[in-house]
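Hi F.,

I've been meaning to write this up properly since the lab meeting, where we talked about keeping a consistent format for the predictions we share between groups. The idea is simple: the sequence comes first, exactly as it goes in, then the structure tokens exactly as they come out, then a line or two of notes. No screenshots and no reformatting. I'm using this chain as the first example so we have something concrete to point to.
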Amino acid sequence: MKRFPTFTVIAIAAILVFILVQRLMGGGTSLSPEAFVAAYEPDQILLDVRTPGEFEDGHLAGAINMNVTSGDFRERAATLPIGEPVYVYCASGVRSSRAAAVLEELGHTEVYNVGGYGELARAGAATEE
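Output, unedited:
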């Protein structure tokens, strides 16, 4: 039986722990792609928190791109109106969880982490390219 080097095992474990912590510590209410498709109205706030390149490759119709990994995310997010529902997505749900936590810190009380772009598109969410 072939053994993995210790470094590889530690690296994989660290990545898994990071993902788990992001999911558990993130903000917002998780909403399945199907529930999002049923609940979302086009006049509501929909944030795509992926990079501009990912956004350009395809995004949900009506989405606003605010890259959560950019240095000005908090400043840009602070411009969103408080008191309205905010739906947040990324590629897999990890970055959107982080963005949802920031939105909650800024005073948003109705924040929904709706997961990843691919899953949302497969569930029937309207897309633009």
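Notes:
The CA atoms of residues 1 and 98 lie 40 Å apart.
Strands lie at 29-30, 45-48, 59-60, 64-65, 86-90, 111-116, 127-128.

If this format works for you, I'll send the rest the same way.

G.
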